[in-house]
Amino acid sequence: MLASRKPTTMTTITGSQSVISSLEHEGVDLIFGIPGGAILPAYDPLYSSPIRHILARHEQGAGHMAAGYAWATGRVGVCVATSGPGATNLVTPLADALMDSVPMVAITGQVPTHAVGNDAFQEAYTVGITMPTTKHNYFVTDPDEIPTVIRQAFHLASSGRPGPVLVDLPKDVLNQETEWYPPQDLELPGYKPTLDGHPRRVKEAVEMLAASRRPVLYVGGGIIKSEASEALTRFAEITNIPVVTTLMGRGAIPDSHPLCLGMPGMHGNYTAITSMQKCDVLAAFGVRFDDRVTGDPNHFAVDAKIIHADVDPAEIGKVRTADIPIVADARRVLTQMIKAWGDRPPVANQEWWETIREWQTKYPLSYDQQPDGPIKPQFVIDELARVTGGDAILVAGVGQHQMWASQFWNFDRPRRWINSGGLGTMGFAVPAAIGAKAGMPDELVYAVDGDGCFQMTFQELIAAAAHQIPVKVAVFNNGAHGMVKQWQKLFYGGRLSASLLNSEVVDYVKLAEGMGCIGLRAEAPEEVGPTLEKSLTIDDRPVVVEMVVDPDEMVFPMVPAGGSNDNVILGPEPGD
Amino acid sequence: MTVLPHPPRHTLSLVVENRPGVLARVSSCLARRGFNIHSLAVGPTIDPGLSRITVVVESEKIEQVKKQLHKLINVIRIFELEPSMAVERETMLIRVAAIGNARSEAIEVANIFKATVVDVGYNSLTFEVTGRPAKLNDLIELLRPFGVVELVKSGRIAIGRAAKSKPSRMRAVG
User: Fold this and answer.
1) Which of A116, A180, A376, A415 is most buried, by the most CB atoms less than 10 A from its CB?
2) Tell me, what's the pLDDT at B174?
3) Residue B119 in 3-state DSSP?
4) How buried is residue A111: exposed, middle or buried, by Cβ count under 10 Å (0-12/13-18/19+)?
């Protein structure tokens, strides 16, 4: 059916060459992958293609690299793997990218079509396995379909609510003769994202906000994906409404902006959490009322009217019924809102702001770094901000270090904060940082990682060293799966079941050197700044900076899982 | 066996692209979101490029079900068919134990339901019947005393009822 669209004047090539031509046609400059039996034909034309290939050390790494690249550049990240184990190793990064709406295309090899279904060597039912972990996937049986399928894959990955798309290519399809043609017709009758907000809904939303007294703008990853930061900041400014930025939306409005209240949620700051709890209108843009934000949804912002704008209609009303639902792209709807607001005065919310400022003064984020005490992880984030001037793309894995990074770093722009939010994929940081640095070679890319996370994917630093991708990784060594340990201390009577990592076994400096990187270490607070400064002087290879941090430090504030956001645990007072 | 109460049933009619794997995507989407499928019927439409899936879903959150199914790239349209606004049919093949006098008694019951005998065995009768799902259930109850040997249902299919008066403005039928 698709093949009928192909013009007849092209020269004959192989399916593999058609794949590479299609990637070149999409403007792909960089792909991340590992070759293997079934995908081998595709690697041959790649040899003479201008596309740069980064040889990951595990397909999971290739997938997260593509995600990091996509986050940092705003372009579609591409990863490649062979059939069977190559493809199954991609499942985690695909699921991660689906949860966090990361535009990604995965190309996988498959056993030849005549062998499919026969339990052939390295056969796995890739399309079946990845059906629930992709936005869409394809099993290609006709090489003539390749240009159209790849075009569709990139279109689906990058439009509407972005996400990962997988294209599974049997080896015989890669080897067959075909013709490449510039794809014309997308032929996606079931896919038409709504981008503009309904004008009546937009007007209602503006009127509701104009009449509100305690409004809050709740914004997230959708702002980043749709490049809506400018529109958001402008709308917040003309309305004088405070903004909370979720974990995925950090940097959507600068943290330094007086209207920005920072991160809400389980480990958000008191003011961001409480302003949502007490608001009368909650205007949500590009967010999905995730349980890590709302806590117990039955006790979340109970007095608030909800305006919910999202490009994915299924997110609206999924967790919380919206009083004003708007299906729209965040940038477009915010631009509509600015226009609809017109020359109205800002919201009459002076009292609200006074309350908010009181909370901010009374409940700031804090930690207690004693000069002769152990290194506090929050202090490392502050020192990193100081020595870099805040001018870095910050990448994190999942756990305590991720929360401290999000809490204490001042994000000044979008696409400067890359982490695994929805799926919570430990091991994300190292490969994602490599992908980000490969895509943005002139930027400083600094990963902060936990020791538990680092031990899941550090081997990708070998790929970084081999390809001269000089990322920097600060490993917070607290000798534990820190967040697990924190929960065990708070909720399991301090029984540290399987959460300790025996840090005495690992020498991170030697480990770094063994992978072609530079290894540095700081063990006392006064060493933190100089060690980080030293890491900035090295730019010819990756650097691993081990930070031996206080093993007992916990992340606060905290709303226990499933609890009400009315009950924020603030943590110990300084000096306790 | 105790029959647990189930969430309300909704009949959804999906127009999908006629491609391999589309049925798997639909059923996987429903399973992954925790929505129970009560019945499912699939077949081609008059357009060879399109298939029709009629699925009866048990869910308290039917809007969410529809929205999640809509996200599938190969799903083109979804209609929810309210029972009062649709013709719903199901076909059943039911084999009952019947020997001697029981044969004519079973046939008498079946006749009331316009069920026809499609197979006769040494000690059994097999009926075919089409009707609303409730009618089929009534027949099952009435045949149960004979001993139901085997029962096969097609899954529900449905079509929206057409307008009963001339529309004020004629519109092309898509």
Assistant:
1) A180
2) 38
3) strand
4) buried
Residues A174 and A227 in one domain: no
Distance of CA A154 to the CA centre of its chain: 18
Pairing of strands A518-522, A543-548: parallel
Contact present, A30 and A438 (Cβ < 8 Å)? yes
Residue B74 forms contact with A (CB below 8 Å): yes
Is A456 assigned a catalytic role? no
> Does residue A209 sit in the same domain as residue A337?
yes
If we measure between CA atoms, which residue out of B2, B51, B45, B46 comes closest to residue B22? B51
Edge-to-edge strands, sheet with A393-396: A417-418, A393-396, A445-450, A472-477, A543-548, A518-522
**A59: which residues sit within 8 A by CB, 6+ positions away?**
A33, A34, A79, A81, A85, A86, A87, A89, A90
Strands (E), chain B: 9-17, 36-44, 50-58, 75-81, 86-97, 116-120, 124-131, 148-153, 157-160
Residue appearing with tokens 């593999």: A16
Q: Chain B contact for A297, CB < 8 A?
A: no
Contact assessment for residue A473 and residue A544, using Cβ atoms and an 8 Å cutoff? yes
Determine, yes or no, domain membership for A574.
no
Q: Which residues of A touch B63 (CB under 8 A)?
A: 317
Residue for token pair 């705003």: A74
A122 is catalytic: yes
How many C-beta neighbours within 10 Å does residue A177 have?
A: 12
Count of structural domains, chain A: 3
CATH number at residue A331: 3.40.50.1220
pLDDT level of residue B138 (50, 70, 90 thresholds): very high
Distance set, CA A520 to CA A425, A460, B169 (Å): 26, 18, 78
SS3 A380: helix
Which region, left, alpha or beta, applies to residue A530 given φ > 0 means left and ψ of -120 to 50 means alpha? alpha
The type of residue at A400 is Q
| Cβ neighbours of B32 in A, within 8 Å | 132
Cα A111 from Cα A173, distance rounded (Å):
10
pLDDT < 70 regions, chain A: 1-10, 574-576
Assigned domain for A185 exists: no
pLDDT recorded at residue A10? 62
Whether A179 contacts A13, CB under 8 Å: yes
CA distance A44 to A35: 10
Compute how many other C-beta atoms are within 10 angstroms of the C-beta atom of residue A574: 8
Q: Are A183 and A147 in contact (CB under 8 A)?
A: yes
Residues within 8 A of B (CB atoms), A 395-414 only: none
Question: Can you give the pLDDT at residue A574?
Answer: 57
Domain coverage including residue A219: 199-362
Q: Give residue A544's identity as a one-letter amino acid code.
A: V
User: Which residue segments constitute the domains of chain B, with CATH numbers given?
Assistant: 9-81 (3.30.70.260), 87-158 (3.30.70.1150)
The C-alpha atoms of residue A322 and residue A85 are separated, in whole angstroms, by: 43
Q: Are residues A353 and A231 in the same domain?
A: yes
* Element holding B19 (H helix, E strand): none
ipTM value: 0.92
- CB contact, 8 Å: A132 with chain B? yes
Establish whether A121 is a catalytic residue.
Answer: yes
